[in-house]
Write a structure and sequence with these properties.
Enzyme class: hydrolase
CATH architecture of the largest domain: Alpha-Beta Barrel
Radius of gyration: 24 Å
Organism: Lutibacter oricola
Number of strands: 14
Strand order of the largest sheet: 5-4-3-2-1-8-7-6
CATH topology of the largest domain: TIM Barrel
InterPro entries: FA58C (IPR000421), FUC_metazoa-typ (IPR016286), Galactose-bd-like_sf (IPR008979), GH (IPR017853), Glyco_hydro_29 (IPR000933), Glyco_hydro_29_N (IPR057739)
Number of domains: 2
Helix content: 10-25%
Order of helices and strands: HHEHEHEHEHEEEHEHEEEEEE
Number of helices: 8
CATH class of the largest domain: Alpha Beta
GO molecular function, one term: alpha-L-fucosidase activity
Shape: globular
CATH superfamily of the largest domain: Glycosidases
Function: Alpha-L-fucosidase is responsible for hydrolyzing the alpha-1,6-linked fucose joined to the reducing-end N-acetylglucosamine of the carbohydrate moieties of glycoproteins.
Strand content: 15-25%
Length: about 450
């Protein structure tokens, strides 16, 4: 009897100990985030009312004038698409805030709208069991928080706003930060405003909130997850091991403009192919859907999201993260020429929009070739220019000693995408046939959807 009693006590102690270990087990927020797979990016702010993708500062707050705003409609649309998290533009580069911030009057409280839109967003999406993320621009044109003008006062201003967002709205799984160390605009760089200054502040309030810097770099010293800028030719590579998310748009731009209610949207097939590729390469898919000037998702958007939800599926949850390795680690790049060491050929495969390849002046047959080291199968190419100059080009693969045409076009601009039938080759190349000036090509990425 005594032995039985001891055995029971021991078993209870063992179960208790096991439960405590399970309870105390630390869950990696990066791993948890990647298992969310699919999210909704929501660009809605002052730019919605002025047909400006980057709204100018000093707009009258009363010009922000939704007449039928309904965050519940947004949330239900996201749920219908099987989205598991969302990211909302609390403040864009113009500095207008969609919550009643205590550090400036350039906010929703100075408009005619009676409410806190950040709170309405948070409440609506939580009701649908969708995790909450926030977008926040450090570059603030209204309050002159920009490159060359970073000082203790405006750093404190930024910290105060982040404190409000992280203390008044419950758990926030990520903050997507823009206008900080970015290749666009006049936001502060990481020398005048180091990454840890704001990241440490964020983590002092919410330790598990991921700081995702929208800077177009893949350097994990300045972001906890890479954000691939899908609208500018930066794409998750075929051998990606970086924890990341990819951000395309359902409509043609980030913010809504008049006429979008009748626009042909990104197809279901494209979304599903891109989502599946991202999810199988340690990357989430954050699809932007922009509300209109009434404060509603257009009917075409709502319908398309529902169609996506009827088609999409997700892989089994990740149980561990891979060893992080350099993108395109086995790929070698050569070119007909380069204008300088700054514009070397290998820049086109580093997944960094700050670096580019430029051929030398006088090169009459400029080309750049990617050698993957062994045959690889692809059916999609994505590339983009930083300085536009390509007027005509072609993309080929070397098959049995001959170059086979895969895609051709006129201007590459900042985001060229082309699909082709599956091709297996070791070498692929881009040839510039005509150019108006010396172009700067930022990225060339081959993938298989």
């Amino acid at each position: 009897m005594l032995k039985k009693s001891i055995l029971i006590v021991f078993s209870i102690a063992l179960i208790s100990c096991s439960s405590k270990v399970e309870k105390d087990k630390v869950v990696d927020p990066v791993l948890s985030f990647l298992n969310l797979n699919f999210g909704m990016f929501i660009h809605y702010n002052m730019g919605t009312y002025h047909a400006e993708q980057w709204a100018k500062p000093n707009h009258d707050p009363k010009s922000f004038a939704p007449t039928n705003l309904d965050c519940n409609q947004w949330a239900k649309a996201a749920k219908s698409a099987k989205m598991n998290y969302a990211v909302f533009t609390t403040k864009h580069h113009d500095g207008f805030c969609l919550w009643d911030t205590k550090v400036t009057d350039y906010d929703i409280a100075s408009s005619l709208y009676n409410g806190d839109i950040v709170k309405e967003y948070v409440d609506a999406f939580r009701k649908e069991d969708i995790k909450i993320g926030l977008y926040f621009s450090v570059w603030d044109r209204q309050h002159k928080i920009e490159n060359g003008n970073i000082n203790p006062d405006n750093i404190q201003f930024t910290k105060d706003q982040l404190t409000e967002l992280l203390t008044n709205y419950g758990e926030v799984i990520c903050i997507v930060i823009d206008g900080w160390g970015s290749k666009w605009g006049r936001g502060p760089n990481f020398e005048e405003l180091p990454f840890n200054v704001l990241a440490d502040h964020i983590h002092s309030i919410q330790p598990n909130c991921l700081v995702i810097n929208h800077s177009c770099k893949t350097d994990l010293n300045v972001t906890q997850l890479v954000h691939y800028e899908a609208t500018h030719g930066q794409h998750c590579p075929f051998d990606n091991t970086l924890p990341s998310q990819q951000g395309p748009t359902l409509q043609s731009t980030w913010f809504w403009e008049k006429g979008y209610e009748n626009q042909e949207l990104k197809s279901v097939a494209s979304v599903v192919k891109e989502l599946n590729f991202a999810n199988s390469h340690y990357s989430n898919y954050l699809l932007n859907a922009a509300p209109n000037d009434k404060g509603l998702m257009d009917e075409n958007v709502v319908n398309r999201l529902k169609e996506i939800g009827e088609t999409v599926s997700f892989p089994k949850p990740l149980v561990a993260l891979p060893k992080i390795e350099k993108p395109h680690k086995n790929v070698k790049v050569i070119a007909s020429s380069s204008s300088s060491e700054e514009f070397k050929p290998e820049n086109v495969i580093d997944c960094d929009l700050f670096t580019r390849w430029q051929f030398a002046e006088g090169d009459e047959n400029p080309w750049i070739e990617l050698d993957f080291g062994k045959p690889e199968t692809f059916n999609q190419v994505i590339c983009g220019e930083f300085k536009k100059g390509v007027e005509k080009f072609k993309i080929e693969a070397l098959i049995h000693g001959d170059w086979k045409l895969l895609a051709e076009g006129n201007r590459i601009t900042n985001n060229f995408n082309a699909s082709f039938n599956d091709v297996t080759a070791q070498k692929y190349r881009l040839t510039v046939l005509e150019s108006s000036q010396l172009p700067r090509i930022a990225e060339i990425t081959f993938v298989k959807y």
